């Protein structure tokens, strides 16, 4: 196991930007109603963060140990890399620790665990789930809460150091053992623990160690955001005595930097003093904020996922094992593999987990006329299915009822999704983004209409993924991708932005799930 990082520590800012486009996410952890495993005192909880890699759970990091506390708020901030295109599985395990070296071993008492994905956490921003013991048994009423924040690449770091003078003495036979907690007050008036200092033993005028914290963690990069500082007298049984509190802002800290001090009277008349404040990104406040993908997702934007499936005759008779639509009882066909691979990513960002599923290029009941945008659940009023499994079931039940036909026209479905996206765009709320997954076995027949539809859709909150299934020649499909040049409509109008990604499935069907 890795040695624990310093409580509330942040990495040194990298002098050179990484070439890879990568987001980092901070995770804060708290628990409530943990099981009490100790006889004389309460449990001493510690959280281990594990990430699944190639089917194995690997420890990434661990929190500090909080003594004698069944409702801990951990100061440790877990930092994970975020990749939208991967299902990143996390596991949080809580232990009653008997010493940091042995956390997670048989010497500790397991208080419960919880599994989720990074995508679920960033999509909901705050996730609260019950803790489970082995064999799926509830750990009493225990819950764990994970709060996520993106680390912006340009938000800077600040180094702070605090000291206090003439603190109130809470101990009878010795002086107080003070420590300081800094909280950020969010817009909903909830408080997020930013940093917890070390305990300075037997001292009424403590000088705490300097620490670095990202400006995103400290004040959400808003210099006027209110901060709350609380000083406690440490108690080994977890019953810390309140000494006092103060309120400030990062703006106040900046103004005081020239004087090298900012003093606050706490609620008991003592003086707390910020005696050092070093801004690591002095030009920060002149930087224009560029909103990232995660800013939208964590701001509540939902991804609406639609899948469109090619039911043209070139796929082959579904009853024949050579058909691309053949339902093999032992393994999914390429259509299902591609659907699940993309759908499992998108479902974390859709709160109702309902997905539109359409088909094209088939004769459908009752009149068996060719349709290029029919609901595969045959409900024209509601084409949504319950989760990815609902789409799979609708696909399998649909096949015996239709006649594969043609041609391969995809412009109608692109236009259909674009109309819904246009209605959303007019609201100006950025509350939904639309992803259309088109699964097809050949080059589209209506190429001119498709190019026109894509150019129109490029002005909308919408993206298109086209997956080529089977062994056909997909050379002409690369035109739609736009990687080799700007896609234009038949009249020469260019796309506003590149919204199409074409992927030949045969290049990926035998690689690992992560790829």
From TrEMBL:
It is found in: Cell membrane; Cytoplasm; Nucleus. Residues 3-131, 138-263 form the C2 domain. One of its GO terms (biological process) is cellular response to calcium ion. Pfam families: C2, Copine. GO terms for molecular function: calcium-dependent phospholipid binding; metal ion binding. Belongs to the copine family. This is CPNE7 protein.
């Amino acid at each position: 196991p890795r040695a624990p990082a310093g409580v509330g520590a942040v990495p040194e800012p990298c002098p050179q930007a990484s070439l890879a486009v990568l987001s980092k996410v901070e995770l804060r952890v708290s628990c409530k109603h943990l099981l009490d495993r100790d006889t004389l005192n309460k449990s001493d909880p510690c959280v281990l963060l594990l990430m699944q890699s190639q089917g194995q759970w690997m420890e990434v990091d661990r929190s500090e140990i909080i003594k004698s506390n069944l409702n801990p708020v951990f100061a440790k901030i877990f930092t994970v890399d975020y990749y939208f295109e991967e299902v990143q599985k996390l596991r949080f395990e809580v232990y009653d620790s008997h010493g940091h070296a042995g956390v997670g071993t048989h010497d500790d008492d397991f208080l419960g665990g919880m599994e989720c994905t990074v995508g679920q956490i960033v999509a909901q921003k705050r996730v609260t789930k019950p803790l489970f013991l082995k064999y799926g048994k509830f750990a009493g009423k225990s819950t764990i809460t994970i709060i996520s924040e993106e680390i912006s690449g340009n938000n800077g770091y600040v180094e702070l150091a605090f000291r206090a003078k003439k603190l109130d003495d809470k101990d009878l036979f010795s002086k107080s053992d003070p420590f300081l907690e800094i909280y950020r007050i969010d817009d909903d008036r909830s408080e997020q623990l930013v940093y917890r200092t070390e305990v300075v033993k037997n001292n009424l005028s403590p000088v705490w160690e300097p620490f670095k914290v990202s400006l995103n963690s400290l004040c959400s990069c808003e210099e006027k955001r209110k901060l709350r500082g609380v000083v406690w007298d440490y108690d080994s049984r977890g019953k810390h005595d309140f000494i006092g509190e103060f309120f400030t802002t990062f703006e106040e800290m900046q103004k005081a930097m020239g004087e090298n001090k900012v003093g606050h009277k706490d609620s008991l008349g003592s003086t707390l003093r910020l005696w050092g404040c070093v801004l690591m990104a002095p030009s920060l406040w002149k930087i224009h904020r560029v909103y990232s993908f995660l800013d939208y997702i964590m701001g509540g934007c939902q991804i609406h996922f639609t899948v469109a499936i090619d039911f043209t005759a070139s796929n082959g008779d579904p009853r024949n094992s050579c058909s691309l639509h053949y339902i093999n009882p032992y393994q999914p066909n390429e259509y299902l593999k591609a659907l699940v691979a993309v759908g499992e990513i998108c479902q974390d960002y859709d709160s109702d987990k309902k997905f539109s599923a359409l088909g094209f290029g088939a004769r459908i009941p009752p009149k068996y006329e060719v349709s290029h945008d029919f609901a595969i659940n045959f409900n024209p009023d509601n084409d949504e299915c319950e989760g990815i499994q609902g789409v799979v079931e609708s696909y399998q039940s649909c096949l015996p009822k239709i006649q594969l036909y043609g041609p391969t026209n995809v412009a109608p479905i692109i236009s259909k999704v674009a109309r819904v996206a246009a209605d959303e765009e007019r609201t100006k709320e950025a509350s939904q983004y639309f992803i259309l997954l088109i699964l097809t076995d050949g080059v589209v027949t209506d190429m001119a209409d498709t190019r026109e539809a894509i150019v129109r859709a490029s002005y909308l909150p919408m993206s298109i993924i086209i997956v080529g299934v089977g062994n056909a020649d997909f050379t002409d499909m690369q035109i739609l991708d736009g990687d080799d040049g700007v896609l234009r409509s038949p009249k020469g109008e260019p796309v506003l932005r590149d919204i199409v990604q074409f992927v030949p499935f045969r290049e990926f069907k035998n690689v690992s799930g992560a790829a």
